[in-house]
């Protein structure tokens, strides 16, 4: 009786203070966190130039200068897109947000999503580049900021998905030369850094194109990132394919289904479900990696931030700008990774049934 | 692969023939097309340019290099710099990541939560943004060498570089110093034997550690090796070892970014060891740290090796971000050469070969480690 009670008490004791070393850790860490929070508060709030503020005050302030965000947010978010047409990029972001939002709810997963995405892609491209429906034409060289980050990462995954699925199927194929070629392509791409692909996009690709064909650098970068991502997609899909029991394929063959019908009706619908979390993680990596386009002189969200602090008047406040942009990336990436974790648990539950 | 049924066998033969034809046709067309377009621009693929003089200097070289040295040598120095940065990142990220991963497993919710927050922040901010931020912090927030900051004696921080204390040979030898050198060499020999797959009995291992300690002590006491502290000379520092601001920014940012991932690997590996194992160890009377050292960690390491290999390969590839801050790794030197000589195709081919080589080496080393650790 006595032991039972003591073990119950042991279990309900606060882990913050028991055993004794946890109490020491809690006290020490709290003190450190308070110290940190106090300094952060002083820098970011009490001694900072808060919004709305004037840039001139920043020279006297001991803390942060958030005026740079107020002054440069348009440049950072939308880059060099024509000022008069900014509603179009806002609309693009809204369309993408709605499409992504709807697609992320498992209840809405059906063939209609393909229609939705086709419509989303058409409207995004129409809005961004214009030239039709009375919209002014905006050359891809002017696409920058958050819309460019979104277009590059989503565009890459949209192109990479079919490519990567084909690569994964080729890697699982019974035709040995095809399998060998797929393995070679996948391992080659996964072995080299993305920067190499971007150099291919900016320097090598134009050499292979006929002189009369010029493709904007953004599109070239998009193609190279997409091909690169396809290898990672193939690996994620392969994990799903390997999860499918061999009996599925045999059952489909017994029903008289040919290879492509089997893949389309039996294998892929199951395999893609299983590989979804892996696919989302690959997408997440590439959402961060699109920032590398800065190296070949494109202005994605990170590039426009660099442009904002290249202004000598605001150079001293680089940390505030980087923190603001890091917060945007963090919110995007963190919510995607949390969603991926939730989806993994959800799929595990639904597959058990 | 399942046994082919007659239907799929027929498919396979047809598929084989079609695939071979399609692949050869595709390759043929690609080569024809490339040769035609490259030819029309009078571009040829030729590695002869590697012997031409580079006409640029490398700020961060492990070997002596001047402008009259060849492009080939410049690329080789870049390759060495890539290896240097990769090794530094791998070593530091393993230590920092393991530490954060262990804190993430603490029984104290506050500590656990803080470690989790740190991991999420490190993982969810793009590495290039972290690199730019650290680079700017070093450039703008660290003092000039004139008023350099010395938090600990011998460690000097400035915006021109960071200096650490090191050991220097004075060049004078005596009997005790030679004995020390011999002891240290013997210890190194034992270590090398073990690294290359030899079996070392426990007693010999302890002996080797003792020999190393005694050897180093003899070398220092005899005055043949002296500590070398950085000292201010004119506008800069001399002595010790120094790292450039670009190198420091690259290593700090990639270390932190990778640590977030390694922490999750470590946490996952420790959690993957069944609870029954530590409960059984507890029942046998082992203390907490003993359980960790003798039961949990040896099993966790086995689980962690494959994902760690991935992280090491990733961070090695990520050192190519150096081009964004001007650390002379193979990519940034290659970039300069591409701009100067226009030899883009050849330089990219060299990049591919270099990174594939590094990947193979890392995988091979980790595979050996895996075999050594496995129970069989």
TrEMBL record, chain A:
Record field: transmembrane: 20-41, 86-109, 116-138, 150-170, 182-209, 215-234, 282-302, 322-343
Oxidoreductase keyword on record: no
Subcellular location, record wording: Cell inner membrane; Cell membrane
Key words, A-Z: Cell membrane, Membrane, Transmembrane, Transmembrane helix, Transport
Gene3D superfamilies named in the record: MetI-like (1.10.3720.10)
Residues of the ABC transmembrane type-1 domain: 146-340
SUPFAM superfamilies found in the cross-reference section: MetI-like
Database matches in Pfam families: BPD_transp_1
Keyword Phosphoprotein attributed: no
Membrane topology classification: Multi-pass membrane protein
Family of this protein: Belongs to the binding-protein-dependent transport system permease family. HisMQ subfamily.
Protein name from the UniProt record: Amino acid ABC transporter permease
Organism the protein comes from: Shinella pollutisoli
Taxon lineage: Bacteria, Pseudomonadati, Pseudomonadota, Alphaproteobacteria, Hyphomicrobiales
UniProtKB/TrEMBL annotation, chain B:
InterPro entries named in the record: AA_ABC_transptr_permease_3TM (IPR010065), ArtM/GltK/GlnP/TcyL/YhdX-like (IPR043429), MetI-like (IPR000515), MetI-like_sf (IPR035906)
Pfam families (UniProt xref): BPD_transp_1
SUPFAM superfamilies found in the cross-reference section: MetI-like
Topology of this chain in the membrane: Multi-pass membrane protein
Membrane-traversing stretches: 12-31, 85-103, 175-195, 207-226, 344-362
Domain ABC transmembrane type-1: 79-366
Compartments where located: Cell inner membrane; Cell membrane
Main subcellular location of this protein, as a coarse class: membrane
Alphabetically ordered keywords of this record: Amino-acid transport, Cell membrane, Membrane, Transmembrane, Transmembrane helix, Transport
Similarity comment: family membership: Belongs to the binding-protein-dependent transport system permease family. HisMQ subfamily.
UniProt protein name: Amino acid ABC transporter permease
Organism for this UniProt entry: Shinella pollutisoli
């Amino acid at each position: 009786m006595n032991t039972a009670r003591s073990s119950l008490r042991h279990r309900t004791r606060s882990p913050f203070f028991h055993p004794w070393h946890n109490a020491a850790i809690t006290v020490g860490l709290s003190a450190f966190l308070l110290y940190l929070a106090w300094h952060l508060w002083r820098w970011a709030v009490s001694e900072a130039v808060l919004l709305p503020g004037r840039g001139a005050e920043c020279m006297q302030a001991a803390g942060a200068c958030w005026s740079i965000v107020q002054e440069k947010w348009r440049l950072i978010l939308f880059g060099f897109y024509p000022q008069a047409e900014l509603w179009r990029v806002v609309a693009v972001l809204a369309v993408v947000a709605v499409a992504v939002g709807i697609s992320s709810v498992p209840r809405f997963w059906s063939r209609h999503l393909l229609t939705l995405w086709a419509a989303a892609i058409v409207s995004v491209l129409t809005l961004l580049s214009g030239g039709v429906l009375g919209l002014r034409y905006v050359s891809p060289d002017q696409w920058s900021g958050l819309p460019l980050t979104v277009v590059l990462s989503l565009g890459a995954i949209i192109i990479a998905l079919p490519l990567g699925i084909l690569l994964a199927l080729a890697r699982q194929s019974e035709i040995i030369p095809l399998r060998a070629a797929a393995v070679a392509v996948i391992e080659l791409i996964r072995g080299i850094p993305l920067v190499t692909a971007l150099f291919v996009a900016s320097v090598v690709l134009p050499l292979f194109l006929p002189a009369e064909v010029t493709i904007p650098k953004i599109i070239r970068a998009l193609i190279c990132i997409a091909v690169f991502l396809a290898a990672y997609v193939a690996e994620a899909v392969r994990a799903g394919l390997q999860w499918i029991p061999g009996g599925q394929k045999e059952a489909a063959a017994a029903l008289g289904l040919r290879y492509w019908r089997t893949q389309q009706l039996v294998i892929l619908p199951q395999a893609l479900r299983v590989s979804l979390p892996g696919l989302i993680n690959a997408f997440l990596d590439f959402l961060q990696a699109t920032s590398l386009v800065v190296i070949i002189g494109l202005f994605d969200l990170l590039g426009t931030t660099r442009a904002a602090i290249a202004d000598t008047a605001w150079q001293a406040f680089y940390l505030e700008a980087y923190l603001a942009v890091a917060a945007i990336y963090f919110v995007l990436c963190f919510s995607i990774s949390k969603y991926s974790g939730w989806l993994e648990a959800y799929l595990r539950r639904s597959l058990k049934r | 692969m399942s046994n082919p049924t007659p239907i799929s066998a027929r498919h396979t033969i047809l598929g084989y023939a079609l695939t071979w034809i399609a692949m050869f046709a595709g390759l043929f067309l690609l080569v024809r097309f490339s040769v035609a377009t490259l030819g029309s621009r009078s571009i040829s693929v030729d590695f002869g340019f590697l012997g031409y003089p580079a006409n640029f200097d490398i700020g961060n070289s492990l070997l002596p290099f001047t402008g009259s040295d060849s492009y080939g040598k410049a690329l080789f120095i870049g390759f060495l710099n890539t290896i240097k940065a990769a090794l530094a990142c791998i070593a530091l990220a393993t230590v920092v990541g393991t530490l954060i991963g262990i804190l993430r497993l603490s029984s104290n919710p506050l500590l656990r939560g803080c470690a989790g927050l740190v991991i999420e922040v490190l993982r969810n901010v793009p590495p290039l943004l972290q690199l730019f931020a650290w680079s700017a912090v070093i450039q703008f927030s660290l003092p000039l060498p004139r008023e350099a900051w010395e938090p600990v004696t011998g460690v000097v921080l400035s915006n021109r570089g960071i200096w650490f204390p090191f050991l220097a040979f004075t060049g004078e030898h005596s009997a005790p110093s030679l004995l020390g050198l011999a002891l240290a060499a013997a210890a190194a020999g034992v270590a090398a034997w073990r690294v290359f797959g030899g079996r070392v009995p426990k007693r010999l291992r302890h002996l080797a550690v003792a020999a190393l300690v005694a050897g180093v002590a003899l070398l220092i006491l005899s005055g043949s090796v002296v500590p070398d502290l950085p000292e201010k000379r004119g506008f800069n520092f001399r002595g010790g070892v120094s790292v450039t601001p670009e190198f420091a920014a690259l290593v700090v940012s990639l270390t932190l970014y990778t640590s977030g991932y390694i922490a999750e690997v470590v946490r996952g590996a420790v959690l993957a060891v069944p609870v029954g194992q530590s409960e059984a160890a507890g029942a046998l009377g082992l203390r907490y740290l003993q359980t960790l050292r003798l039961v949990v960690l040896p099993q966790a390491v086995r689980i962690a090796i494959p994902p760690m290999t991935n992280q090491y390969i990733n961070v090695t590839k990520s050192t190519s971000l150096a081009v964004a801050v001007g650390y002379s790794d193979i990519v940034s030197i290659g970039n300069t050469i591409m701009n100067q000589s226009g030899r883009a195709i050849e330089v990219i081919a060299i990049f591919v070969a270099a990174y594939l080589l590094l990947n193979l080496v890392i995988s091979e080393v980790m595979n050996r480690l895996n075999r050594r650790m496995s129970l069989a």
